[in-house]
Amino acid sequence: METQRSNAETASAVDPAHRRSGAADPSPPAAGVDDGPGSTADELAASLAGVWRTVLELDEIDDDANFFELGGHSMLAALLISHCERTIGTVIPLQLVFDNPVFGDFVAAVARYDDQQGPALPRLVAQGLRRAPLSLQQEQYLQLEQALALPSVNNMVAVVEVGADLTLDALQAGVDALVRRHPALRTAVRPDGDTAVQIVLPADGLPPVPCTEIDLGALSPERRAATLRSRVMRQFLVPFDLAEGVLLRCQVFRNGADPDVLVLHLHHSACDGNCIGFVLDDLAASCVGRPIADAAADDPEHLDYCRWQRDNLRELLDDSRAHWRTVVRALAEDLVEPVERRATASYVRLTTHLPVTETQQLRTWTAAAGLTEFSTVAAAAALAVGRVGDRSRAGIGMMLDNRNHAGLERTVGSFALSSLMAVDLTGVEVARDLVARVQDEHLAARRRTQLPLETLLAEPADELGVTPNDLIDLVVDFERIYRMNRPGRLPLSVGVDLSELLRMPLLGPRRTLTAVVQDDERLALTIECVDEPAERAEAQALLDATVQALADFAKGPDVPIGTGR
Q: Where is the composition biased (Low complexity) (predicted)?
């Protein structure tokens, strides 16, 4: 998973703020809705319609609008719930979105909701902190640097093409504004006795963000591409001085008649892959002189989250212990012989595509059923594990954005956490039931992943004599290509993929499957594995089986499927 297997994240397929525009009629009050918590039926419907419009970036929402058909997915569903909590003052479960994807049904469900889903998470509130302990995630990142003696292991990059003229002065002003706006990008990590503490530096008086301009226009296309990769890699390997606290630097490559390439270098302690899209969105505004919207006074920042996690550590462990013991026991029962894991400097990426027609067929019926694209791909991957390995359960790893609190929707910081599902492949006869089962497991894991997976699994894994990585058959990731084309913003798009160049040795789970929706609407599926003959053969078999499962799913929700042994 991200914190274990990779030291670099690129913007080539990361856009948590991705939206699909649409139009609908003005939203009338939901029929048959009684008074909601703290509001009349009309007021509740109007409030929730405003939330849907904000999250989906639409002008209007009508009673028949389907969240997933309008471009919603699991990350946006979490964002929706966070907005709802702030707007109506009631904590509602994420499951409510998936069970009621149609707006009118969602309003009615919110009005009926009576907190039967169990206690909410401890509340995260803004405290205006300028000093806080490291989160457990950050602590792990720094321990990884020390263990590998490789200070650049947590460096990240975002690479985009620029679709308009961008002067160096405009870029400098833009990145400086970005650092002033987001405290995480100007947070120093310094020793504090036997531990470390992070301190937000004042926005005024900061040194300029390092910006380098490189002119490649006179080079041949082949030489230009090679030089760009070489210069990015050289900068990528330069460690950040965490004690200084400015955790961003950038390069801009001038390419003659071709689009310029902008490269942002960041540190994982300040940013995760899920907020690279937020950083690029704000940079697209600040580089053309538009102010970046300030956070609301009651919005928590990254340091508030770090303090919250530490203060509630025992409660979070106690709340999730039974869930993770069940997951570990289920996977340990079906565990194949553990594979000896070793760091390797060589790996391979195998890629194939699901055709447009089948991709569209899948998206049509899953969206109508309130099932996400991630759940669909993860179900296909779990089925592939069962078919290839003759297994009755599959351990599917994943990355969660971990933004379950109101006010963190677009906060820059290192929030993401690895998680794990134990997918039972028995007793499922049709595609819809398997995808729904995976989605239920995903939501259960999301609710109980507030700490690093290694922390959550340590006790139950030790009881059974296994390691967390032994339980993970395949990590699944679903990404969207970043593109900024809003009026009055600097146009940015992905055109250069440096992820293969910048990957470091796989340190955790042996295989990762990444699904990316392409501009032509095909679904690209890439599996990464150690470059050894046996590993490569099994990875290819898993990739082929995943594509076949998706092709089978595309035939319809009631298509019969064979699951494991």
A: 30-39
Strands (E), 411-494: 417-424, 474-480, 483-484, 492-493
Per-residue pLDDT tens for 156-188? 999 999 999 999 999 999 999 999 999 999 999
| pLDDT, the chain, mean | 85
pLDDT of residue 520 exceeding 90: no
Q: Where are the domains positioned within the chain? A: 131-303, 312-553
| Amino acid letter for position 109 | A
SS3 annotation, 85-126:
HHHHCCCCCCHHHHHCCEHHHHHHHHHHCCCCCCCCCCCCCC
Do 131-303 and 312-553 show the same overall fold?
A: yes
Average pLDDT over residues 268-274: 92
- Distance (Å, whole) CA 414 – CA 273: 9
Tell me how far apart the alpha carbons of residues 208 and 464 are, in angstroms, rounded to a whole number.
52
**The dihedral of CA 321, 322, 324, 328: what is its sign?**
positive
DSSP 470: G
Domain 131-303, what architecture? 2-Layer Sandwich (3.30)
Question: What is residue 279's predicted lDDT score, i.e. its pLDDT?
Answer: 95
For 351-402, how does the pLDDT look when each residue is reduced to its tens digit (9 = 90+)? 999 999 999 999 899 988 888 899 999 999 999 999 999 999 999 999 998 8
Place domain 312-553 in its CATH homologous superfamily.
Nonribosomal peptide synthetase, condensation domain (3.30.559.30)
For residue 32, give both structure tokens. 């048959």
CA distance 276 to 268: 11
**For the whole model, what pTM was predicted?**
0.84
How does DSSP assign 226-280, residue by residue?
Answer: HHHHHHHHHHHTSPP-TTT---EEEEEEE-TTSPEEEEEEEETTT--GGGHHHHH
